[in-house]
Design goal:
The chain is α+β, with helices and mostly antiparallel strands. It folds into three domains: 1-76 and 182-220, no CATH class; 86-180, T-fold, CATH 1.10.3980; 227-356, T-fold, CATH 3.10.520.10. It is 31% helix and 26% strand. The protein has helices spanning 11-19, 53-74, 82-87, 98-109, 121-127, 138-148, 184-202, 297-310, 312-322; strands at 33-39, 42-49, 94-95, 151-155, 158-161, 207-211, 215-219, 228-234, 237-247, 251-257, 262-265, 268-271, 285-293, 325-330, 335-338, 346-350. The strands form four sheets. Strands 1-2-6-7-10-13-14-15 form an eight-stranded antiparallel beta sheet, with helices on one face. A three-stranded antiparallel beta sheet has the order 3-5-4, with no helix packed on it. It has a three-stranded antiparallel beta sheet with strand order 8-9-16.
C-alpha cells in the first residue's frame, strides 16, 4: 500500500478536519485523545473518547496493529505480503488471502464488479505514478488490460490468471506487464474497519473517528451528542472545504479524486482512477465522495472508486437507490449533491462552490 494507497496527506487537510471536531487534547471524558501516525501509505489520525486515557491509548495502539495486519496481507508493493506471494505466480491456481476474499465478496455484494477491478496491477504499473510517470503506448495498455481480464475466481478462496493475452515475455511473472492483484482501492477502508473494531472491542473507547485523509470511519456518538463532521476539500484547492458529511454514530465517508495520484503531460491530466475496460483514466469528474451511517469503510472505499467510474448520472442513481449520501465535483467544477434519506443518520451540506 505504499504506492497503491498514496494520497495527499497535507497538514491543511488534517487541520480542516480536526478543527470541526473541537478540542484535540486531554483525558477528560468529554475531551478526545488524538494520535496521528504514518500508516497505509498516508497519515492516519485516531480521535478517541473514553474515561481512562491509558486504556484509550492502549486501544489506539491495538487499532494501528490491526491496520498493519491488513497492510501486511494486501500491500501489492511489499514483496513479503500475502498478495505479493500470489502475484509471484499469477498463472498458478492458488488460495487467496482471507482479506482478499473479504474484499472480493464486498465488490460483488455492492454490484461493483464492472467498475472496480482488483486485477489492474500491471495496468497501473504502466503509468508509474510514484516513479517516472509516463503515458503508456496503446498496444502495451491493451495487452496489460487483456492480461488483467484473465483473472478468474475459481471458488470462494481460490483464483488464477488465465493466459488469454497472448505470448509476450513481459507478461511472465516479474515482467513489466505481468498481471497481478492490487487491492489499493479497497484495503484502506478494510484497515479502518479493523481499527474501528479494535477500538470497540477494547471496552475503553466510547466513541472515535479514524481518518486516513481520503477515507474516514466513525464509532459511536461523541459525548456531547453532536454529529461527526467530515470535510470534503475542493479538488483544486485543498485549503477550501466545499462540503461536510455529518454522521451520527457508526458510519464511513470516502473520497476518490483525480488530484490524489496524477501527472500532467501535454496539458492532459493522467490520474490513478482507471476504467477497467480500457485502462485509461476516467474522465468527467474531479472528485466523488460517498458516505453513509452504518456503511463500512470497505464499502465506502470501493464505492467511491466504482461510482467515479460509473459517471455522474449513474452514480447519482446508485446513491439514491442505495440510500447513501453523495457529493460530486465534475470536470467543470460543478457540484452535485445526493442527500441520504432523512432518517439515515447522515447529512450532506454544501459549504462553498468548487473552483471552476
Amino acid at each position: 500500500m505504499r504506492r497503491a494507497l498514496a494520497t495527499i496527506a497535507t497538514a491543511a487537510a488534517l487541520a480542516t478536519l480536526t478543527a470541526a471536531l473541537g478540542p484535540l487534547a486531554g483525558c477528560a471524558p468529554d475531551e478526545p485523545t488524538v494520535v496521528s501516525r504514518e500508516a497505509l501509505g498516508t497519515v492516519v489520525s485516531i480521535t478517541a473518547y473514553g474515561e481512562d486515557e491509558a486504556g484509550v491509548r492502549a486501544a489506539i495502539d491495538e487499532a494501528f496493529v490491526a491496520m498493519a495486519g491488513v497492510e501486511a496481507a494486501l500491500d501489492a508493493y511489499d514483496p513479503a505480503s500475502e498478495v505479493s506471494r500470489f502475484n509471484a505466480s499469477p498463472y498458478e491456481e492458488q488460495s487467496l488471502p482471507a482479506d482478499a476474499v473479504e474484499v472480493l465478496d464486498a465488490i460483488q455484494a455492492l454490484d461493483a464488479d464492472a467498475e472496480f477491478s482488483p486485477s489492474l496491477l500491471g495496468v497501473v504499473g504502466l503509468y508509474d505514478f510514484e516513479g517516472t510517470p509516463s503515458v503508456p503506448e496503446d498496444a502495451d495498455l491493451a495487452l496489460a488490460v487483456a492480461a488483467a481480464d484473465g483473472f478468474i475466481r475459481i471458488d470462494s478462496d481460490t483464483a488464477v490468471f488465465s493466459r488469454n493475452a497472448g505470448p509476450d515475455p513481459r507478461l511472465e511473472p516479474g515482467g513489466s506487464l505481468a498481471p497481478g492483484l492490487d487491492f489499493g482501492g479497497a484495503a484502506k477502508g478494510l484497515a479502518l474497519d479493523r481499527a474501528r473494531e479494535a477500538l470497540r472491542a477494547s471496552g475503553a473507547v466510547t466513541a472515535a473517528l479514524i481518518t486516513a485523509v481520503s477515507s474516514t470511519v466513525t464509532l459511536g456518538s461523541k459525548p456531547d451528542g453532536s454529529a461527526w463532521r467530515i470535510g470534503v476539500e475542493d479538488p483544486r484547492d485543498s485549503s477550501v472545504v466545499v462540503a461536510v458529511f455529518q454522521v451520527d454514530g457508526d458510519g464511513s465517508v470516502s473520497t476518490s479524486g483525480d488530484y490524489q495520484r496524477y501527472f500532467e503531460q501535454d496539458g492532459v491530466r493522467y490520474h490513478h482512477i482507471l476504467d477497467p475496460d480500457t485502462g485509461a483514466p476516467v474522465r468527467g469528474m474531479r472528485s466523488l465522495t460517498v458516505g453513509g451511517a452504518d456503511l463500512s469503510g470497505l464499502a465506502s472505499d470501493i464505492l467511491s472508486t466504482a461510482l467515479f467510474v460509473k459517471g455522474t448520472g449513474d452514480a447519482a442513481a446508485y446513491a439514491e437507490e442505495a440510500g447513501i449520501g453523495l457529493y460530486v465535483v465534475d470536470d467543470e467544477g460543478r457540484a452535485l449533491t445526493v442527500p441520504a434519506p432523512d432518517d439515515s443518520g447522515l447529512v450532506v451540506t454544501e459549504m462553498a462552490s468548487p473552483k471552476p
